[in-house]
Amino acid sequence: MMQRTKRSLITQLGLALLGLLVLFGIWQILIRTLDNPAADSSTEKQLDPAVLDKKLFTAIRDGDKAQVRELLQLGAKLSNRDESGDTVVMRAALHADAEMMRILLEAGADGLARSSDNTPPLLRTHHDIEKMRLLLDRGATVDDFAMLAAASVPGCQEALKLLVAHGGKANPSAAAYTPLMAAAGTGDFDAVNYLLSIGANVKVQTPTGFTALIAGALSGNPRVVATLLEKGAEVNVVAKLERGILQTPVGVAASMGHAECLKLLLAAGADVNVQGGPFNHCALLGAATTPSQETMKILLTKADIAATDWTGRTALDWAERSGDTEIVRMLRQVSGAKKGDGPAKPSPVPAINIPVDETAIRKAITRALPPLQQSEQKITETRSCVSCHQHGLVSMVVGMARKRGLPVNEKIAGDERAYMIKDMRVRHRSLLLGTGIDPTLSAHVLIGLSAEGEPPRRVTDALVHYLVLRQRIEGRWQQENYRPPDEASDFQFTALAIRGLQAYASKGRKQEIAAHIERAREWLERTPTGDVVDKGFQLLGLGWSQAAPEVIQKAVQSLLKEQREEGGWSQLPTLDSDAYATGLALYALHEAGGLGVDQASYKRGLEFLVRTQKADGSWFVASRSFPFVEYSTSGFPHGRDQFISASATCWATMALMQSIPVVDSKK
């Protein structure tokens, strides 16, 4: 009897213990579910191949190695592709680090499988030598494109050596853009020197006549130019680009204000008077638009001072667009220099004189919005291209206006946003190779899309990668045109690139992008500024890159010192205050410098803008840049000055909008 009772008690205790274990197991499942609400509640759903594959690509993009390993254990397939046709290796090459690629390759991923557009994975790794090494060790083929892609990235000497060790050649098999041209264009002396040491042909020309020497002159690195000349580069080569634009080494150096490069070219026998193209451009006319006195001094010893552009304007005419500068005085002193007639300036639209208060500011904004949006729509129709002044900046304006409850034409905004995305989608493959777009435009597009709340997508990933590839060794992003004031400052490009990268860097690239931004911040801090445009964008870049407070305040004070008595800012000390400089200065002071809109200096700036707005809603600013495309109207006021006036109107409108409270979207 006692034994039966004992056995019964043991049985009951066992059952109780079993029950406790079951309850504990259920509790653990609940804990895991609560700790990971994103986890699938259904085992069947977790093991769904489509779900697993989608999660795998997301985890790779996010750089989540633990999640990738777990998904592979659950059965995610390494052979699948994402919606754009990329393999897991290509996704990792673009978004993750080398260790992620190693995990995938060691798990059996094919490191040689191409994307749906036939791009090999190796072409996605030329920004990261460790990723490149992983693929080369697994048999990746080094072709002409691989060498060219690597040479396009500043600081590429070691990558080039690695590619050459695996069969890469310095000279492409067909006449085309060469690695030497690419390296010279970024001003990378070490890469240029290495390519020349392994037999790169310095005399090769593209079908348009472009050469490594032209590229080197464009970069502004005199060591590159000197080395190319020493190796026998043709100094008087003439390239004829699209639309008939002519480029020569000396013309490029002069137009960019690269005086040291210009000296080397002239010493080698360069002809400074080569002239032609649709705008009759020559070295002297280009130099007249730059602030480089040294460049002009060098040219005046050999240049034809009477040279005129397609309208009859002389170098003096172009120089005078920057006011009474030292370059203007130099030209006036030269025997034979005279002012040509040039084109007539558009008749000014009378300014509206009204008291400046919030009502007046709101009216000024609502007057400016329609012509800006309509011109954005018109430029799409007439040029079929995306522009900085009528797409990127207008998108910034539209995004700010929408947040403040100001009237926006949503039909135009939606159409133009879709057009920008469509245009960038066509350029996708080129962007991933660091080509296919005007450099500054890439940053404008990213900032514009971000301002309008556009989520990350394939084209924004490509634009981010493009910017990563274009950063120079010293940390800046370099302008490749000189079109003042809107495409002339490296401070501008650098600040905009920082903001674009911050807006759209994928999770897997956050650490990498942070390093690029840190290099840019260091360049911004140590590099002296020139004009107000430099100062405004320097402040924006410092603020966006989170420089130290004392560094930002120093930049704030430097910019505030430039404010004129009438409340505005001028692009140059020799010019009157205008909406471009004033709008940019105010925007930067508030956005990055923390200057309150109720501060006296800010209010004086707002008063200047409201006082100088035209009745049609625009602000007028005269162009100072030599043209490079045929004129076509966007419908914005002010004729040939419409594009810089549109940019000025954007900056002025954004400065005004900063004084209007953001509407609470939750109400």
UniProtKB/TrEMBL annotation:
Residue ranges of coiled coil: none
Record bears the keyword Membrane: no
Start-end of each ANK repeat: 84-116, 175-207, 208-240, 245-277
Keyword Phosphoprotein on entry: no
Pfam families hit by this protein: Ank_2, Ank_4, SQHop_cyclase_C
Stored Gene3D superfamilies: 1.50.10.20, Ankyrin repeat-containing domain (1.25.40.20)
PANTHER family: ANKYRIN REPEAT AND PROTEIN KINASE DOMAIN-CONTAINING PROTEIN, ANKYRIN REPEAT-CONTAINING PROTEIN-RELATED
Name listed for the protein in its UniProt record: Ankyrin repeat domain-containing protein
UniProt source species: Telmatocola sphagniphila
